[in-house]
Amino acid sequence: MSDTIYKTYELKVTGMSCTNCALGIKKALEKDGFLNVETNFASDDVKFDAVKEDLLPLAVKKIESLGYKVHIESNKQDGDKRTFFDIEKKFYISLIF
Predict the structure, then answer these.
(1) Is residue 45 part of a domain?
(2) Has residue 21 been placed in a domain?
(3) 1-34 tens-digit pLDDT
(4) Are 37 and 30 in contact (CB under 8 A)?
(5) How many domains is the chain partitioned into structurally?
């Protein structure tokens, strides 16, 4: 049994407009060794596990190199103030594709 301790990170990533955007971020992070990567374009969430804390800048750099903007929030409650209309708008846009 391994005693490796993983830390879970949660980022807000703007610019994802469809499932392919989210999938691209997921694949890029997994390729760089991040574990349990979850992406949600409707809520702009990206979650992943990493072994070391110093890997967070690497993840941010990787996501930004794909053309997305990363927002690191210190207070999660502020990030939860997502309006219904923002999510609804993304839903209708995704129906087109």
Answers:
(1) yes
(2) yes
(3) 456 778 889 999 999 999 999 999 999 999 999 9
(4) yes
(5) 1
Determine the 3-state secondary structure of 13 from DSSP: strand
Question: Does residue 1 sit within a domain?
Answer: no
Sequence-separated (6 or more) residues with CB below 8 Å from residue 31: none
The answer to whether 66 and 25 have CB atoms below 8 angstroms apart is yes
With H, G, I as helix, E, B as strand and everything else as coil, classify residue 23: helix
Is the residue at 51 inside a domain? yes
Output the six-digit token pair for 51.
């072994």
Q: Model pTM?
A: 0.70
Integer Cα distance of 60 and 47 in angstroms: 12
Q: What is the pLDDT of residues 65-90, one digit of tens each?
A: 999 999 876 544 444 455 666 777 77
> Which CATH number covers residue 89?
3.30.70.100
